[in-house]
Amino acid sequence: MSFKKVVALLLMLSVIQAPVQARVVTPKKPYGGTLVIGDSNQPTLVNPVLTNLSISVSLMNVVFNRLVRVNPLGELVTDLAKSWDISSDGFVYTFHLRSGVKFHDGTEFTSADVLYTYQKIRNQETGSPFFSEMSNVQGFTAPDRYTFKVILKEPQASFINQCTREIMPKHLYEGTDIRKSPFNYKPVGTGPFKFKEWTRDGQITLEANPDYFEGRPYLDRVVFKTYKNRSEVWSALMRGEVDLIRFMSVEDYEITKKDASFKTYATPVPDYYLISYNLGDPVLADPKVRLAIACAIDRKGLIEKVDKGYGVESIGPFFKGSWAFNPKVKPILYDPAQAISFLKEAGWQDKDGDGLLEKSGKSLVIRMMVDSRDEKMRKMAMLIRQQLQEVGIRLEIRLYQDETEMNNSVSLNDMQAHLTYYIGGGPDPNETAKLWGSGDLRKGKIWTHSKLDPEMDRLINLGQITQNKKNRGEIYQNLHEIIYGEQQACFLYFPFMFHAVSKKVHGADSFLNSMHMPDYTMKDFYVQN
Protein backbone atom coordinates (compact mmCIF):
# COMPACT_ATOMS: atom_id res chain seq x y z
CA MET A 1 0.00 0.00 0.00
CA SER A 2 1.37 3.39 -0.94
CA PHE A 3 2.26 6.00 1.66
CA LYS A 4 -0.57 8.25 0.44
CA LYS A 5 -3.13 5.44 0.87
CA VAL A 6 -1.90 4.71 4.40
CA VAL A 7 -2.25 8.39 5.39
CA ALA A 8 -5.70 8.53 3.85
CA LEU A 9 -6.78 5.40 5.75
CA LEU A 10 -5.48 6.75 9.08
CA LEU A 11 -7.30 10.03 8.56
CA MET A 12 -10.52 8.17 7.81
CA LEU A 13 -10.16 6.06 10.96
CA SER A 14 -9.49 9.14 13.09
CA VAL A 15 -12.69 10.68 11.80
CA ILE A 16 -14.65 7.52 12.54
CA GLN A 17 -13.20 7.24 16.07
CA ALA A 18 -13.59 10.93 16.98
CA PRO A 19 -16.34 11.42 19.58
CA VAL A 20 -19.50 12.96 18.24
CA GLN A 21 -20.18 16.28 19.97
CA ALA A 22 -23.83 16.56 21.01
CA ARG A 23 -25.45 19.63 19.57
CA VAL A 24 -26.92 21.69 22.37
CA VAL A 25 -30.12 23.39 21.31
CA THR A 26 -31.58 25.91 23.70
CA PRO A 27 -35.35 25.95 23.21
CA LYS A 28 -36.71 29.33 22.32
CA LYS A 29 -39.28 30.84 24.61
CA PRO A 30 -42.52 31.09 22.65
CA TYR A 31 -44.50 34.31 22.51
CA GLY A 32 -48.20 34.21 23.23
CA GLY A 33 -50.59 32.80 25.78
CA THR A 34 -52.41 34.12 28.83
CA LEU A 35 -51.50 33.85 32.49
CA VAL A 36 -54.50 33.91 34.84
CA ILE A 37 -53.68 34.82 38.45
CA GLY A 38 -56.17 34.11 41.22
CA ASP A 39 -56.38 36.14 44.42
CA SER A 40 -58.74 36.78 47.33
CA ASN A 41 -57.76 40.44 47.75
CA GLN A 42 -60.15 42.69 45.89
CA PRO A 43 -58.53 45.39 43.71
CA THR A 44 -58.55 49.03 44.74
CA LEU A 45 -57.37 52.08 42.84
CA VAL A 46 -54.04 51.61 41.04
CA ASN A 47 -52.01 54.72 41.83
CA PRO A 48 -48.24 54.71 42.66
CA VAL A 49 -48.63 57.51 45.18
CA LEU A 50 -51.68 56.15 46.99
CA THR A 51 -51.84 52.35 46.64
CA ASN A 52 -50.16 50.07 49.18
CA LEU A 53 -52.73 47.30 49.68
CA SER A 54 -54.59 44.56 47.79
CA ILE A 55 -53.91 42.87 44.46
CA SER A 56 -53.52 46.38 43.03
CA VAL A 57 -49.92 46.38 44.32
CA SER A 58 -49.09 43.48 42.00
CA LEU A 59 -50.84 45.31 39.17
CA MET A 60 -48.72 48.40 39.76
CA ASN A 61 -45.54 46.36 39.69
CA VAL A 62 -46.13 45.22 36.11
CA VAL A 63 -47.83 48.35 34.74
CA PHE A 64 -45.28 50.85 36.11
CA ASN A 65 -41.51 51.02 36.62
CA ARG A 66 -39.40 52.52 39.39
CA LEU A 67 -36.07 54.31 39.62
CA VAL A 68 -34.59 51.12 41.08
CA ARG A 69 -36.14 47.75 41.79
CA VAL A 70 -35.57 44.70 44.00
CA ASN A 71 -34.54 41.53 42.20
CA PRO A 72 -35.47 37.98 43.35
CA LEU A 73 -32.34 37.86 45.54
CA GLY A 74 -33.37 41.02 47.40
CA GLU A 75 -30.72 43.17 45.70
CA LEU A 76 -31.39 46.66 44.42
CA VAL A 77 -30.82 46.91 40.67
CA THR A 78 -31.42 49.45 37.93
CA ASP A 79 -34.82 50.10 36.39
CA LEU A 80 -35.79 53.52 34.96
CA ALA A 81 -32.50 54.77 36.36
CA LYS A 82 -29.68 53.18 34.37
CA SER A 83 -27.27 54.13 37.16
CA TRP A 84 -27.02 56.28 40.27
CA ASP A 85 -24.35 58.10 42.28
CA ILE A 86 -24.15 59.02 45.95
CA SER A 87 -22.09 62.02 46.96
CA SER A 88 -19.07 61.39 49.19
CA ASP A 89 -20.80 63.10 52.13
CA GLY A 90 -23.96 60.97 51.63
CA PHE A 91 -26.28 63.95 51.20
CA VAL A 92 -27.02 63.81 47.46
CA TYR A 93 -28.37 60.93 45.35
CA THR A 94 -28.11 61.47 41.58
CA PHE A 95 -30.08 59.22 39.23
CA HIS A 96 -29.17 58.95 35.56
CA LEU A 97 -32.33 58.01 33.69
CA ARG A 98 -32.87 55.93 30.58
CA SER A 99 -33.76 57.85 27.43
CA GLY A 100 -36.36 56.72 24.93
CA VAL A 101 -38.62 54.98 27.47
CA LYS A 102 -42.29 55.49 26.57
CA PHE A 103 -45.45 55.51 28.62
CA HIS A 104 -48.19 53.27 27.27
CA ASP A 105 -49.81 56.27 25.53
CA GLY A 106 -46.58 56.94 23.58
CA THR A 107 -45.35 59.92 25.65
CA GLU A 108 -41.66 59.80 26.56
CA PHE A 109 -40.74 59.30 30.19
CA THR A 110 -38.43 62.03 31.62
CA SER A 111 -37.14 63.37 34.91
CA ALA A 112 -40.24 65.61 35.09
CA ASP A 113 -42.34 62.50 35.77
CA VAL A 114 -40.01 61.38 38.58
CA LEU A 115 -40.02 64.87 40.10
CA TYR A 116 -43.82 65.04 39.95
CA THR A 117 -44.27 61.59 41.55
CA TYR A 118 -41.84 62.21 44.41
CA GLN A 119 -43.19 65.69 45.11
CA LYS A 120 -46.68 64.23 45.38
CA ILE A 121 -45.47 61.63 47.88
CA ARG A 122 -43.67 64.27 49.92
CA ASN A 123 -46.66 66.65 49.94
CA GLN A 124 -48.53 65.94 53.17
CA GLU A 125 -51.82 67.10 51.61
CA THR A 126 -51.68 64.18 49.18
CA GLY A 127 -52.14 61.73 52.05
CA SER A 128 -49.69 59.22 50.61
CA PRO A 129 -48.99 56.15 52.79
CA PHE A 130 -45.35 56.60 51.75
CA PHE A 131 -45.10 60.14 53.13
CA SER A 132 -42.93 59.13 56.10
CA GLU A 133 -40.33 57.62 53.74
CA MET A 134 -39.52 61.15 52.59
CA SER A 135 -39.10 62.67 56.05
CA ASN A 136 -35.34 62.99 55.56
CA VAL A 137 -35.62 64.73 52.18
CA GLN A 138 -34.52 68.36 51.90
CA GLY A 139 -35.61 68.65 48.28
CA PHE A 140 -35.73 67.23 44.75
CA THR A 141 -34.38 68.65 41.49
CA ALA A 142 -34.47 67.64 37.83
CA PRO A 143 -31.47 69.51 36.33
CA ASP A 144 -32.09 68.08 32.87
CA ARG A 145 -34.38 65.72 30.98
CA TYR A 146 -32.60 62.56 32.10
CA THR A 147 -31.23 63.46 35.55
CA PHE A 148 -33.01 63.45 38.90
CA LYS A 149 -31.45 64.45 42.22
CA VAL A 150 -32.48 63.97 45.84
CA ILE A 151 -30.94 66.17 48.54
CA LEU A 152 -31.20 64.77 52.07
CA LYS A 153 -31.28 66.58 55.40
CA GLU A 154 -28.72 64.13 56.78
CA PRO A 155 -26.87 61.12 55.33
CA GLN A 156 -28.98 57.96 55.05
CA ALA A 157 -27.39 54.93 53.40
CA SER A 158 -30.70 53.10 53.22
CA PHE A 159 -32.48 55.90 51.36
CA ILE A 160 -31.98 54.12 48.04
CA ASN A 161 -34.63 51.65 49.27
CA GLN A 162 -37.17 54.49 49.29
CA CYS A 163 -36.59 54.92 45.56
CA THR A 164 -38.58 51.84 44.64
CA ARG A 165 -41.84 53.76 44.20
CA GLU A 166 -43.49 53.44 40.80
CA ILE A 167 -43.32 56.50 38.56
CA MET A 168 -46.60 58.01 37.33
CA PRO A 169 -47.10 60.11 34.14
CA LYS A 170 -47.11 63.79 35.01
CA HIS A 171 -48.94 64.78 31.82
CA LEU A 172 -52.01 62.73 32.79
CA TYR A 173 -52.26 63.73 36.47
CA GLU A 174 -50.96 67.29 36.71
CA GLY A 175 -53.67 69.80 37.57
CA THR A 176 -56.13 67.10 38.67
CA ASP A 177 -57.21 65.59 41.97
CA ILE A 178 -55.12 62.41 41.90
CA ARG A 179 -57.57 60.69 44.26
CA LYS A 180 -60.39 61.10 41.74
CA SER A 181 -58.42 60.62 38.54
CA PRO A 182 -59.96 58.16 36.02
CA PHE A 183 -56.42 56.82 35.50
CA ASN A 184 -56.59 55.27 38.97
CA TYR A 185 -58.82 52.63 37.35
CA LYS A 186 -57.19 52.51 33.92
CA PRO A 187 -53.52 53.14 34.76
CA VAL A 188 -50.90 54.25 32.24
CA GLY A 189 -47.30 53.36 33.04
CA THR A 190 -44.06 52.36 31.33
CA GLY A 191 -44.09 48.72 32.43
CA PRO A 192 -44.04 45.41 30.55
CA PHE A 193 -47.83 45.12 30.57
CA LYS A 194 -50.46 47.75 29.83
CA PHE A 195 -54.01 48.07 31.06
CA LYS A 196 -56.83 46.75 28.85
CA GLU A 197 -59.99 46.41 30.94
CA TRP A 198 -61.47 46.19 34.44
CA THR A 199 -64.80 44.38 34.61
CA ARG A 200 -67.48 44.81 37.24
CA ASP A 201 -66.75 41.41 38.77
CA GLY A 202 -63.22 42.57 39.66
CA GLN A 203 -61.38 40.91 36.77
CA ILE A 204 -58.52 42.98 35.36
CA THR A 205 -56.83 42.23 32.05
CA LEU A 206 -53.40 43.49 31.03
CA GLU A 207 -51.79 43.19 27.60
CA ALA A 208 -48.14 42.86 26.62
CA ASN A 209 -46.39 46.16 25.94
CA PRO A 210 -44.69 45.64 22.55
CA ASP A 211 -42.53 48.75 23.08
CA TYR A 212 -41.23 47.83 26.54
CA PHE A 213 -37.63 49.05 26.89
CA GLU A 214 -36.40 45.63 28.05
CA GLY A 215 -38.17 43.84 25.20
CA ARG A 216 -41.69 42.58 24.66
CA PRO A 217 -42.93 40.16 27.36
CA TYR A 218 -43.45 36.59 26.20
CA LEU A 219 -47.05 36.46 27.44
CA ASP A 220 -49.78 38.16 25.44
CA ARG A 221 -51.94 38.81 28.47
CA VAL A 222 -52.05 38.66 32.27
CA VAL A 223 -55.48 38.37 33.85
CA PHE A 224 -56.13 38.97 37.57
CA LYS A 225 -59.26 37.23 38.87
CA THR A 226 -60.49 37.77 42.41
CA TYR A 227 -62.58 35.49 44.62
CA LYS A 228 -64.28 35.77 48.02
CA ASN A 229 -61.64 33.84 49.95
CA ARG A 230 -58.49 31.72 49.59
CA SER A 231 -60.46 28.47 49.50
CA GLU A 232 -62.34 29.65 46.41
CA VAL A 233 -59.05 30.69 44.78
CA TRP A 234 -57.62 27.22 45.38
CA SER A 235 -60.75 25.57 44.01
CA ALA A 236 -60.41 27.71 40.87
CA LEU A 237 -56.81 26.51 40.49
CA MET A 238 -57.86 22.88 40.77
CA ARG A 239 -60.59 23.44 38.14
CA GLY A 240 -58.04 24.95 35.76
CA GLU A 241 -59.77 28.33 35.93
CA VAL A 242 -56.60 30.07 37.09
CA ASP A 243 -52.93 29.27 36.45
CA LEU A 244 -51.17 30.76 39.47
CA ILE A 245 -52.04 31.40 43.10
CA ARG A 246 -49.96 32.79 45.93
CA PHE A 247 -50.26 32.50 49.72
CA MET A 248 -52.33 29.33 49.77
CA SER A 249 -52.97 27.51 53.06
CA VAL A 250 -50.59 24.76 54.11
CA GLU A 251 -53.47 22.26 53.89
CA ASP A 252 -54.17 23.19 50.26
CA TYR A 253 -50.45 23.15 49.52
CA GLU A 254 -50.08 19.61 50.86
CA ILE A 255 -52.79 18.44 48.43
CA THR A 256 -51.60 20.47 45.44
CA LYS A 257 -47.97 19.36 45.64
CA LYS A 258 -49.10 15.77 44.95
CA ASP A 259 -50.84 16.82 41.72
CA ALA A 260 -48.65 16.44 38.63
CA SER A 261 -50.50 19.30 36.91
CA PHE A 262 -48.79 21.90 39.09
CA LYS A 263 -45.45 23.10 40.35
CA THR A 264 -45.59 24.07 44.02
CA TYR A 265 -43.35 26.26 46.14
CA ALA A 266 -42.76 26.54 49.89
CA THR A 267 -40.71 29.65 50.67
CA PRO A 268 -39.77 31.28 54.02
CA VAL A 269 -41.47 34.58 54.77
CA PRO A 270 -39.01 37.43 55.53
CA ASP A 271 -40.86 38.27 58.75
CA TYR A 272 -40.97 36.28 61.97
CA TYR A 273 -42.91 35.58 65.14
CA LEU A 274 -41.49 36.82 68.41
CA ILE A 275 -42.49 37.68 71.94
CA SER A 276 -41.83 41.36 72.43
CA TYR A 277 -41.02 42.32 76.03
CA ASN A 278 -41.77 45.35 78.10
CA LEU A 279 -38.21 45.85 79.36
CA GLY A 280 -39.46 48.43 81.82
CA ASP A 281 -41.24 45.68 83.72
CA PRO A 282 -39.27 44.66 86.86
CA VAL A 283 -39.62 40.92 86.13
CA LEU A 284 -38.57 41.05 82.47
CA ALA A 285 -35.86 43.63 83.10
CA ASP A 286 -33.79 40.72 84.43
CA PRO A 287 -31.85 39.12 81.52
CA LYS A 288 -31.75 35.79 83.40
CA VAL A 289 -35.55 35.57 83.22
CA ARG A 290 -35.50 36.35 79.49
CA LEU A 291 -32.83 33.70 78.89
CA ALA A 292 -34.91 31.22 80.89
CA ILE A 293 -37.95 31.86 78.68
CA ALA A 294 -35.83 31.32 75.55
CA CYS A 295 -34.61 27.96 76.91
CA ALA A 296 -38.12 26.92 77.96
CA ILE A 297 -39.76 27.36 74.54
CA ASP A 298 -39.54 24.51 72.04
CA ARG A 299 -39.37 26.33 68.69
CA LYS A 300 -39.15 23.14 66.64
CA GLY A 301 -42.24 21.91 68.43
CA LEU A 302 -44.08 25.15 67.65
CA ILE A 303 -43.17 24.90 63.97
CA GLU A 304 -44.35 21.30 63.84
CA LYS A 305 -47.63 21.80 65.70
CA VAL A 306 -48.61 25.25 64.41
CA ASP A 307 -47.21 25.18 60.85
CA LYS A 308 -46.91 21.45 60.09
CA GLY A 309 -43.12 21.64 60.11
CA TYR A 310 -42.82 24.58 57.70
CA GLY A 311 -40.70 27.17 59.45
CA VAL A 312 -37.15 28.39 60.04
CA GLU A 313 -36.04 29.09 63.60
CA SER A 314 -35.26 32.75 64.23
CA ILE A 315 -31.83 33.49 65.67
CA GLY A 316 -32.08 37.22 66.22
CA PRO A 317 -33.58 40.17 64.38
CA PHE A 318 -32.28 39.41 60.85
CA PHE A 319 -33.13 36.61 58.43
CA LYS A 320 -30.35 34.06 58.03
CA GLY A 321 -29.85 34.95 54.35
CA SER A 322 -29.38 38.66 55.08
CA TRP A 323 -25.95 40.28 54.84
CA ALA A 324 -26.70 41.77 58.28
CA PHE A 325 -26.99 38.33 59.90
CA ASN A 326 -24.10 37.37 62.21
CA PRO A 327 -23.12 33.72 61.53
CA LYS A 328 -21.18 33.61 64.82
CA VAL A 329 -24.37 33.95 66.85
CA LYS A 330 -25.43 30.52 68.04
CA PRO A 331 -29.07 29.64 68.73
CA ILE A 332 -30.32 29.18 72.26
CA LEU A 333 -31.42 25.54 72.47
CA TYR A 334 -34.58 24.15 73.99
CA ASP A 335 -33.45 23.12 77.47
CA PRO A 336 -36.03 23.25 80.31
CA ALA A 337 -33.42 22.22 82.90
CA GLN A 338 -31.23 25.18 81.90
CA ALA A 339 -34.29 27.45 82.07
CA ILE A 340 -34.93 26.36 85.67
CA SER A 341 -31.25 26.97 86.49
CA PHE A 342 -31.40 30.53 85.08
CA LEU A 343 -34.54 31.26 87.11
CA LYS A 344 -32.91 29.94 90.26
CA GLU A 345 -29.92 32.24 89.65
CA ALA A 346 -32.41 35.11 89.34
CA GLY A 347 -33.83 34.23 92.76
CA TRP A 348 -37.03 32.45 91.70
CA GLN A 349 -37.87 29.26 93.61
CA ASP A 350 -40.89 27.02 94.23
CA LYS A 351 -40.99 27.22 98.02
CA ASP A 352 -44.53 25.94 98.56
CA GLY A 353 -44.41 23.05 96.05
CA ASP A 354 -47.31 24.27 93.89
CA GLY A 355 -45.21 24.18 90.70
CA LEU A 356 -45.15 27.98 90.43
CA LEU A 357 -41.97 29.93 91.21
CA GLU A 358 -41.99 32.76 93.75
CA LYS A 359 -39.69 35.57 94.78
CA SER A 360 -40.15 38.11 97.59
CA GLY A 361 -43.69 36.84 98.12
CA LYS A 362 -44.75 37.27 94.49
CA SER A 363 -45.47 34.51 91.99
CA LEU A 364 -43.74 34.45 88.59
CA VAL A 365 -46.61 35.52 86.33
CA ILE A 366 -46.25 37.07 82.87
CA ARG A 367 -49.16 38.72 81.07
CA MET A 368 -48.97 38.41 77.27
CA MET A 369 -51.14 40.11 74.64
CA VAL A 370 -52.33 37.97 71.72
CA ASP A 371 -54.42 38.98 68.70
CA SER A 372 -57.64 36.95 68.98
CA ARG A 373 -58.22 37.30 65.21
CA ASP A 374 -55.12 35.23 64.40
CA GLU A 375 -55.82 31.52 64.79
CA LYS A 376 -52.15 30.51 64.51
CA MET A 377 -51.07 32.98 67.19
CA ARG A 378 -53.81 31.76 69.54
CA LYS A 379 -52.63 28.18 69.10
CA MET A 380 -48.98 29.20 69.50
CA ALA A 381 -49.80 31.10 72.71
CA MET A 382 -51.44 28.05 74.27
CA LEU A 383 -48.43 25.85 73.44
CA ILE A 384 -46.02 28.45 74.88
CA ARG A 385 -48.20 28.65 78.00
CA GLN A 386 -47.84 24.88 78.53
CA GLN A 387 -44.07 24.99 77.98
CA LEU A 388 -43.51 27.87 80.42
CA GLN A 389 -45.68 26.18 83.01
CA GLU A 390 -43.27 23.23 83.00
CA VAL A 391 -40.48 25.49 84.32
CA GLY A 392 -42.62 27.29 86.90
CA ILE A 393 -43.81 30.35 84.94
CA ARG A 394 -47.51 31.11 84.68
CA LEU A 395 -48.39 32.80 81.39
CA GLU A 396 -51.63 34.80 81.42
CA ILE A 397 -52.92 35.27 77.88
CA ARG A 398 -54.84 38.48 77.25
CA LEU A 399 -56.69 38.41 73.91
CA TYR A 400 -57.47 41.65 72.12
CA GLN A 401 -59.98 42.20 69.32
CA ASP A 402 -58.43 45.16 67.53
CA GLU A 403 -55.59 47.69 67.66
CA THR A 404 -57.60 50.11 69.83
CA GLU A 405 -58.02 47.50 72.55
CA MET A 406 -54.34 46.56 72.27
CA ASN A 407 -53.20 50.20 72.49
CA ASN A 408 -55.37 50.74 75.57
CA SER A 409 -53.54 47.90 77.33
CA VAL A 410 -50.21 49.31 76.20
CA SER A 411 -50.98 52.84 77.35
CA LEU A 412 -51.92 51.51 80.78
CA ASN A 413 -48.63 49.58 80.86
CA ASP A 414 -50.76 46.59 81.75
CA MET A 415 -48.89 44.08 79.62
CA GLN A 416 -45.49 42.53 80.07
CA ALA A 417 -45.25 40.74 76.72
CA HIS A 418 -46.80 40.69 73.26
CA LEU A 419 -46.84 37.78 70.80
CA THR A 420 -46.41 39.52 67.47
CA TYR A 421 -44.82 39.58 64.03
CA TYR A 422 -41.70 41.51 63.01
CA ILE A 423 -39.73 42.53 59.90
CA GLY A 424 -36.63 40.38 59.49
CA GLY A 425 -35.60 40.25 55.84
CA GLY A 426 -36.32 43.46 53.94
CA PRO A 427 -34.06 44.70 51.12
CA ASP A 428 -32.13 46.82 53.63
CA PRO A 429 -31.43 45.81 57.25
CA ASN A 430 -31.97 49.38 58.41
CA GLU A 431 -35.74 48.76 58.26
CA THR A 432 -35.28 45.99 60.84
CA ALA A 433 -32.55 47.64 62.90
CA LYS A 434 -34.42 50.87 63.57
CA LEU A 435 -37.18 48.88 65.31
CA TRP A 436 -34.71 48.11 68.10
CA GLY A 437 -33.57 51.65 68.88
CA SER A 438 -34.68 53.70 71.87
CA GLY A 439 -36.50 56.30 69.77
CA ASP A 440 -40.00 55.33 70.94
CA LEU A 441 -38.84 55.14 74.53
CA ARG A 442 -37.35 58.64 74.34
CA LYS A 443 -40.64 59.92 72.87
CA GLY A 444 -42.38 58.87 76.07
CA LYS A 445 -44.06 55.67 74.89
CA ILE A 446 -44.52 53.32 77.82
CA TRP A 447 -44.51 50.04 75.92
CA THR A 448 -41.33 49.05 74.15
CA HIS A 449 -38.90 46.15 73.95
CA SER A 450 -36.16 48.74 73.63
CA LYS A 451 -34.09 50.27 76.36
CA LEU A 452 -31.92 53.34 76.77
CA ASP A 453 -28.73 51.78 75.45
CA PRO A 454 -26.27 54.36 74.01
CA GLU A 455 -24.19 51.66 72.29
CA MET A 456 -27.17 50.20 70.46
CA ASP A 457 -28.37 53.64 69.39
CA ARG A 458 -24.85 54.45 68.19
CA LEU A 459 -24.73 51.30 66.05
CA ILE A 460 -28.20 51.92 64.58
CA ASN A 461 -27.33 55.52 63.69
CA LEU A 462 -23.94 54.49 62.30
CA GLY A 463 -25.63 51.87 60.12
CA GLN A 464 -27.90 54.55 58.70
CA ILE A 465 -25.10 56.85 57.54
CA THR A 466 -22.30 54.43 56.59
CA GLN A 467 -22.11 54.04 52.80
CA ASN A 468 -19.76 51.06 52.52
CA LYS A 469 -21.85 47.85 52.49
CA LYS A 470 -19.12 45.72 54.10
CA ASN A 471 -18.76 48.18 56.97
CA ARG A 472 -22.53 48.39 57.36
CA GLY A 473 -22.70 44.60 57.51
CA GLU A 474 -20.22 44.54 60.39
CA ILE A 475 -22.24 47.19 62.23
CA TYR A 476 -25.49 45.24 61.94
CA GLN A 477 -23.78 41.99 62.88
CA ASN A 478 -22.58 43.65 66.10
CA LEU A 479 -26.12 44.85 66.72
CA HIS A 480 -27.42 41.34 66.07
CA GLU A 481 -25.02 39.91 68.68
CA ILE A 482 -26.16 42.41 71.33
CA ILE A 483 -29.90 42.00 70.76
CA TYR A 484 -29.85 38.21 70.70
CA GLY A 485 -27.30 37.87 73.50
CA GLU A 486 -29.44 39.95 75.84
CA GLN A 487 -32.69 38.36 74.54
CA GLN A 488 -34.41 41.73 74.29
CA ALA A 489 -37.26 39.71 72.81
CA CYS A 490 -37.91 35.99 72.50
CA PHE A 491 -37.26 35.07 68.85
CA LEU A 492 -39.45 32.24 67.56
CA TYR A 493 -39.51 31.44 63.84
CA PHE A 494 -40.03 32.50 60.24
CA PRO A 495 -43.14 30.82 58.78
CA PHE A 496 -43.47 29.76 55.14
CA MET A 497 -45.65 30.98 52.30
CA PHE A 498 -47.05 28.56 49.71
CA HIS A 499 -47.66 29.03 46.00
CA ALA A 500 -48.64 26.94 42.99
CA VAL A 501 -48.54 27.40 39.23
CA SER A 502 -49.73 25.32 36.29
CA LYS A 503 -47.07 23.12 34.69
CA LYS A 504 -47.72 24.86 31.36
CA VAL A 505 -46.31 28.13 32.80
CA HIS A 506 -42.52 28.35 32.69
CA GLY A 507 -39.99 30.89 33.96
CA ALA A 508 -41.70 31.42 37.32
CA ASP A 509 -39.14 29.71 39.56
CA SER A 510 -37.11 32.81 40.47
CA PHE A 511 -40.35 34.65 41.25
CA LEU A 512 -42.11 32.02 43.38
CA ASN A 513 -38.92 30.82 45.10
CA SER A 514 -38.12 34.36 46.25
CA MET A 515 -39.24 35.78 49.59
CA HIS A 516 -39.33 39.19 47.83
CA MET A 517 -41.45 38.04 44.85
CA PRO A 518 -40.81 40.92 42.41
CA ASP A 519 -43.87 40.94 40.13
CA TYR A 520 -42.03 42.57 37.24
CA THR A 521 -40.34 39.21 36.55
CA MET A 522 -43.66 38.11 35.03
CA LYS A 523 -42.27 39.65 31.85
CA ASP A 524 -40.09 36.52 31.58
CA PHE A 525 -42.89 33.98 32.09
CA TYR A 526 -44.00 32.00 29.08
CA VAL A 527 -46.60 29.36 28.29
CA GLN A 528 -45.62 26.07 26.71
CA ASN A 529 -48.18 23.26 26.58
Structure description:
With 529 residues, the protein is an alpha+beta fold. It is built from 16 helices and 22 strands. It has helices at residues 3-17, 56-63, 111-122, 170-173, 230-239, 250-256, 287-296, 299-307, 336-345, 375-389, 403-411, 430-433, 439-442, 454-465, 469-486, 509-512, and strands at residues 34-39, 68-70, 76-78, 81-86, 92-97, 137-144, 147-152, 193-198, 204-208, 221-226, 244-245, 262-268, 271-277, 311-313, 358-359, 362-363, 365-371, 394-400, 417-423, 489-502, 505-506, 526-527. The strands form 5 sheets. Strands 1, 8, 9, 10, 11, 12, 13, 14, 17, 18, 19 and 20 form a 12-stranded mixed β-sheet that branches. Helix 8 packs antiparallel against helix 10 (375-389) and helix 14 (454-465) runs antiparallel to helix 15. The longest helix is centred in the C-terminal third of the chain and has 18 residues, at 469-486. The chain starts with a helix and ends with a strand.
Shape: globular
The biggest sheet, with number of strands, parallel, antiparallel or mixed sense and barrel status, is: 12 strands, mixed
Number of strands: 22
Distance between the termini: 60 Å
Beta-sheet strand percentage? Answer: 15-25%
Radius of gyration: 28 Å
Computed structural class? alpha+beta
The share of residues in helices is 25-40%
**Which spans have pLDDT < 50 for at least 5 consecutive residues?**
3-22
Instruction: Look at the structure and give the mean pLDDT.
Output: 90
Alpha plus pi helix count = 16
